[in-house]
Design goal:
mainly alpha, TPR-like_helical_dom_sf, 195 residues, signal, 76% helix
């Protein structure tokens, strides 16, 4: 059997790759600010459609910082906040305090400062903070109940969930550290006591 020259073999290997490339006419923004803006816009729309509101809020905030149209940013922002609030309320109703807390935290992280936009929101910052605190309190209580029953893993789980959206919550941080130390000490004791 006759061997093909190396350049023929290379060309045969590259042919499928080259045939999948598409041609972009001159002037089409493949790179640069226009391409980034189009990509951001598509990302915002995609996240809003699939209900990924925290991700949409982050992209909208990026658009706002780059000076995007205020009316477009406002429309998307209000849609993302409305979706976040609806999803957070549904999660809260199902006792998913971590899920609700993450959504409330995202809203607060991107809450407009000194913008007329904050007057268009149907829910005040204070109300969102109260909902966030409610979620924190519920998870703190769940952790305490589990701890009192001797369920260290349950307590650790509840307090870890709380810290996912409220990392500065000192009582939960202290309680978590204590429960982890106790659990680790118990596991060590169990290993030592086994024959």
């Amino acid at each position: 059997m006759k061997r093909l020259p190396r350049f023929c073999l290379r060309a045969a290997l590259l042919l499928p790759v080259l045939s999948s490339c598409t041609y972009a006419p001159p002037g089409t923004a493949l790179f640069g600010p226009k391409a980034a803006a189009v990509s951001e816009r598509q990302g915002i729309d995609r996240n809003l459609r699939k209900g990924a509101y925290p991700e949409a809020l982050a992209l909208i905030d990026g658009e706002r910082r780059r000076g995007a149209s205020k009316s477009l940013v406002a429309k998307d922002y209000l849609a993302a906040v409305a979706g976040s609030l609806k999803s957070a309320a549904a999660a809260q109703a199902e006792d998913d305090y971590r899920g609700a807390g993450l959504l409330y935290r995202a809203i607060l992280d991107y809450y407009p400062a000194n913008l007329p936009l904050d007057q268009e929101l149907k829910t005040s910052r204070h109300s969102i903070e109260l909902n966030l605190r409610f979620c924190s309190d519920r998870l703190m209580e769940q952790g305490l109940h589990a701890y009192r029953r001797g369920d260290l893993d349950g307590a650790i789980g509840a307090w870890s969930q709380l810290l996912d959206f409220d990392p500065g919550h000192e009582p939960a941080g202290n309680a978590l550290a204590t429960a982890v130390r106790q659990r680790d000490a118990l596991r060590t004791l169990e290993k030592v006591s086994r024959p």
